């Protein structure tokens, strides 16, 4: 149904690495599947959003679904909501229903229900979104369609230098400047936190490993909460003066610790390394 959350579901599927095509005429479903098959493994999972915006093309949808069920692994998801919920949503965005014409929003909804009744009855999954907010609907979509092994949170652990400014996209920021700076050790100055001698120097300082253990423990419930709220991407930043020594070494260690948490896939980005 229009207004039942198709954009939210489409975005959630894209976050799960599905290839999503919006407002596809039913007649293009077979060519889309053929294209995916020719692409081999490049498009392992595809989703098409088909609705009454297709106008005259939409009438062939039921016949096309029946045709595709033979020889194609297909799941039809129908998004529904009560009339009251749909009217409220259209009023909130101040847009007309695609079928209301010169009538009211409710007239359009009634007309759409009549056209979609057969599709709804033959759907594999019906999701009533009346009482779901966008985050809850995205979470439900992830529960239904996430591939086995798909991480709940794709985490970037970012090192940076405070003298170049705070990272604008960080969800959390930690400060590694409580540790002695290898810059003032002549034999370490030219090296970076990627080098073993610098990393060992940083991690052997009093409080370094204790900080990493405590900080990872503190972040564990945050990442678990992100997964419950379907926040699928996060950036945790840790900085030092120039982003060359301490923050680089600490970011690598923090990423290793957080990668051990369920549903977390952590990568490391060194924003300011090589900037000096």
Description:
The protein is α/β, with parallel strands linked by helices and about 280 residues long. It folds into two domains: about 5-145, P-loop containing nucleotide triphosphate hydrolases (Rossmann fold); about 155-270, no CATH class. Helices cover about 40% and strands about 15% of the residues. The strands form three sheets. It has a four-stranded parallel beta sheet with strand order 6-7-5-8. Helix 2 links the parallel strand 1 and strand 2 (about 45-50). The N and C termini lie far apart (about 55 Å). GO terms for molecular function: ATP binding; GTP binding. Keywords: ATP-binding, GTP-binding, Nucleotide-binding. InterPro entries: P-loop_NTPase, RapZ-like, RapZ-like_N, RapZ_C. This is RNase adapter RapZ.
Fill in the keyword field for this structure.
single chain; 276 residues; alpha/beta; Rossmann fold; 2 domains; 4-stranded parallel beta sheet; two-stranded parallel sheet
């Amino acid at each position: 149904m229009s207004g039942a959350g198709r954009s939210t579901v489409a975005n959630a599927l894209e976050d799960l690495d599905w290839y999503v095509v919006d407002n596809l005429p039913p007649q293009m479903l077979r060519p889309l599947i053929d294209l995916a098959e020719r692409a081999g493994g490049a498009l392992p999972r595809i989703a098409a959003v088909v609705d009454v915006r297709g106008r005259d093309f939409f009438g062939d949808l039921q016949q096309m679904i029946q045709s595709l069920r033979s020889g194609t692994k297909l799941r039809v998801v129908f998004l529904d909501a009560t009339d009251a919920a749909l009217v409220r949503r259209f009023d909130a965005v101040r847009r007309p229903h695609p079928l209301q014409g010169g009538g009211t929003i409710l007239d359009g909804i009634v007309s759409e229900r009549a056209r979609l009744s057969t599709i709804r009855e033959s759907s594999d999954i019906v999701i009533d979104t009346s009482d779901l907010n966008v985050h809850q609907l995205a979470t439900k979509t992830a529960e239904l369609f996430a591939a086995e092994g798909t991480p709940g949170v794709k985490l970037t652990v970012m090192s940076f230098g405070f003298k170049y400014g705070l990272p604008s996209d960080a969800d959390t920021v930690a400060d590694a400047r409580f540790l002695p700076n290898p810059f003032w050790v002549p034999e370490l100055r030219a090296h970076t936190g990627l080098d073993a001698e610098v990393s060992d120097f940083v991690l052997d300082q009093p409080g370094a490993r204790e900080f990493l253990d405590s900080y990872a423990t503190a972040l564990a419930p945050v990442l678990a909460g992100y997964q419950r709220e379907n926040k699928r991407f996060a950036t945790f930043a840790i900085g030092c003066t120039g982003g060359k020594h301490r923050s680089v070494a600490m970011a690598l260690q923090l990423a290793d610790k957080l990668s051990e948490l369920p549903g977390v896939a952590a990568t490391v980005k060194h924003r300011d390394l090589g900037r000096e």
